[in-house]
Amino acid sequence: MRAPIGNFDNARPAAELLDQLAAPVAAAVRDWEGPVPVDQLLHVDTEAEKADTAVFLETYGQDLLETSANCVVVAAKQGGVRTLAGCVVLSSCRVDVNGAVRRGLGARTVSFAPHQTAVGETGMEYGGITPIGLPAGWPLLLDAEVAALPWVLIGSGSRRGKLIVPGKALATLPGAEIVEGLGVRG
């Protein structure tokens, strides 16, 4: 099947390819509930060595710059308590850590989680972290532009392969909160 975005000829329902997803992502897809049917969560095969943004866009389509999103893990601190959270913004944007994220999490300080923490806590590969399958109880801040997309390309939990899902599906994930201005251009 042809994917709804990008130059992918190999889109298939993610539920048919659970063995190609990171364990927490596979579990979330297997147990999927909500208003968006699970068969609208699509998997596309990509080459890990083409995961860097410029090469990825050249290979799979320039339109993906405005239809793909990154999920980054942040560490927030308030009153000596550390909270990890996921933040999802368009790939063309950077995360407003010191503004929208700090306010959204009600934290005094926020920083990007260290690489080992992000990988260890999510059970996903660095460069493939996705909001689908984040640990239970984590806040998930979702930029309003991402939630409004008909289709968005996100990680699959590994550097090989991506998921294409309706933006509104991400808004229904556990702990999800839509935040205006979470992603900043430039």
TrEMBL record:
InterPro entries per the UniProt record, alphabetical: YbaK/aa-tRNA-synt-asso_dom_sf, YbaK/aa-tRNA-synth-assoc-dom
Pfam families: tRNA_edit
Residues that span the membrane, as ranges: none
Residues in YbaK/aminoacyl-tRNA synthetase-associated domain copies: 58-172
Name this protein carries in UniProt: YbaK/aminoacyl-tRNA synthetase-associated domain-containing protein
